[in-house]
Amino acid sequence: MTRSRILGTGSYLPAGLLTNFDLEKRMDTTDAWIRERTGIERRHIVAPGETTVDMAEHAARAALTAAGRAAREVDLIIVGTCTPDLIFPNCGVMLQGRLGNLGCPALSVEAACSGFIYALSLADKFIRAGESKLALVVGAESLSKLTNMNDRGTAILFGDGAGAVLLGPAAEPGILSTHLHADGSHLELLRCTGGVSAGFHPEGDYIKMAGSEVFKIAVNMLGRAVDEALEANQLGREALTWLVPHQANIRIIQATAKKLGMSMDRVIVTVADHGNTSSASVPLALDVGVRDGRIKRGDLLLLEAFGGGFTWGSALVRY
Ligand code: UT7
């Protein structure tokens, strides 16, 4: 049976930086509080006019280059994002227009911070089914556009960026398993306030989050998700080489690593420099680990994410 594997990774961070010290000047917070409670020191912010698809294109081209493949060969594009350029066309289609590989299916998946894991799972299934031979999977977000810069509960957390992987068929499995979950009964704990049919608010629509409640549920669900991934593959915790987690909060990452009995030097951590980039956070961390040489071919990686909805999931990957 055909399986899929990661052929190349890429990422992009906008040049603009928003540091904790910048935030101290705007609101009632401190660098020390943000670092201690979240692990974040700075986040990248899009330039005026720079969009989610612009960042997705940079990340996608970097993944294609890393894999030594041409854009025209791509036969499926899936973009995880909750901050699309437009309501339609979707970001996948807009990215396809930029890459010029016209005709193949292209879509975007809105699953908040789990968007990349959802997109990866879908692309893996297309390849397993023989429907795709070269799939571009992207997570890209302009979360700064949805963040109320007067709300210290969210403004300290979110940043912008994009990450991508190119998936292709392989005899030996690269994507060993993916598990996706959602629980739509907690809308009030984490959401963006406006939308097309619910209506936009004239004063603006922003992310609203009950941080400490979300924190507890995230730790619990991610703990279950990593157990589920290992059990499904009949693997013990010691089999893992790297944890590549969603970068929401260093304390959530530490709790998941502890659950796995992994020391933090086996966890790819980018939260200090990237903040929470939602769908982009896992592929960004993956690309950082690949490019700095820590993640090597043959390593066993556990990717996980948790986000608004709630949505959460994992991917167990032989890189
Ligand atoms: O990626 C999607 C999923 N999202 C997440 O996983 C985010 C999960 N949540 C979090 O990361 C954390 O809950 C936050 C970083 C958002 C907040 O940290 P916390 O440790 O849960 O703080 P808290 O909301 O319980 O607030 C503790 C105290 C409060 O003061 P009092 O009532 O104890 O006097 C807050 O008013 O900290 C205060 N506080 C702040 N102080 C300085 C809250 N935000 C700030 C701030 N600066 N930015």
**Approximate helicity band:** 25-40%
Which small compounds were modeled alongside the protein?
Answer: oxa(dethia)-CoA
- The topology string of helices and strands comes to EEHHEHEHEHEEEEEHEHHHEE
| Tally of strands | 13
Shape: globular
Low confidence ranges? none
Kindly report the average pLDDT value.
97
Distance between the termini: 19 Å
What is the gyration radius calculated from CA atoms? 18 Å
Largest sheet: 5 strands, mixed
Structural class of the secondary structure composition? alpha/beta
Question: DSSP helix count?
Answer: 9
Percent of sequence in beta strands: 25-35%
Q: Which sequence of strands runs across the widest sheet?
A: 1-7-6-4-5
Notes on the protein architecture:
- By secondary structure, this protein is an alpha/beta fold.
- The protein is built from nine helices and 13 strands.
- It has helices spanning 20-26, 31-38, 52-67, 91-99, 115-128, 211-232, 250-259, 271-274, 281-291, and strands spanning 3-12, 16-19, 42-45, 76-80, 106-109, 135-142, 160-170, 175-182, 190-192, 207-209, 242-245, 300-307, 311-318.
- Strands 1-7-6-4-5 form a five-stranded mixed sheet, with helices on both faces. The chain has a four-stranded mixed sheet with strand order 8-13-12-11, with helices on both faces.
- Strand 4, helix 4 and strand 5 (106-109) form a beta-alpha-beta unit.
- Helix 3 packs across helix 4 and helix 6 runs parallel beside helix 7 (250-259).
- The longest helix is centred in the last third of the chain and has 22 residues, at 211-232.
- The mean pLDDT is 97.
- Bound molecules: oxa(dethia)-CoA.
- Oxa(dethia)-CoA is lined by residues 29, 33, 37-38, 113, 152-153, 156, 211-212, 214-215, 218, 248-249, 252, 276, 306-307.
